[in-house]
Design goal:
Order of helices and strands: HH
Number of strands: 0
Helix content: 55-70%
Radius of gyration: 13 Å
Distance between the termini: 23 Å
Structural class: mainly alpha
Number of helices: 2
Strand content: under 5%
Largest sheet: none
Length: about 50
């Protein structure tokens, strides 16, 4: 297996998660909690591989 970094999310999904994180922080969530919510939301939206 070739050595290299594998990305779990695409660049677009990373931007979406960052946007959600910023929104959650405006609502008063901590940075860590907001980041968790952002990536959980993006992960939920991902379509399962068939």
């Amino acid at each position: 297996m070739p050595a290299g970094k594998k990305h779990r999310f695409t660049a677009k999904e990373d931007r979406e998660a960052e946007h959600i994180k910023e929104s959650e922080m405006k609502e008063g969530k901590s940075g860590e909690e907001a980041e968790r919510i952002g990536f959980a939301t993006v992960n939920k939206r991902k379509k399962p591989k068939a």
